[in-house]
Design a protein that fits this description.
mainly alpha, rod-shaped
Length: about 110
């Protein structure tokens, strides 16, 4: 009967240390998972993101301008207006991307 009593009434310090061990393992697993999802960004990756965001805006604006030119017959003006709107959209995309990166606190620069 004494063996059963000992298993039911184990030392509370053992339970606490087991809990701490499991908690620390869980915290470390979560930290690794967050780091995997949001790796630190290098300068190249940030620059490529800015460039591709800007280029996409200009490309879509130029494509929309060409479509307007074909449909309405405004030969140079659709492309000109589309390029201006594309530059504006590309600039807005870069500003948004910069805000996102700065808000995350990860600039990729090492001092």
């Amino acid at each position: 009967m004494s063996d059963q009593d000992e298993s039911n009434h184990s030392d509370p310090r053992d339970k606490a240390s087991d809990f701490e061990r499991r908690l620390n393992a869980r915290i470390e697993a979560r930290r690794v998972e967050e780091e995997r999802r949001n790796p630190s960004r290098s300068g190249w990756s940030i620059g490529l993101r800015y460039g591709s965001d800007f280029f996409a805006g200009v490309l879509v604006g130029a494509g929309g301008g060409l479509v307007i030119d074909r449909l309405l017959g405004w030969t140079p003006w659709g492309l000109i207006v589309g390029l201006i709107l594309g530059f504006a959209a590309g600039t807005l995309n870069v500003v948004r991307a910069a805000r996102d990166i700065n808000a995350s606190g990860d600039t990729g620069a090492k001092n």
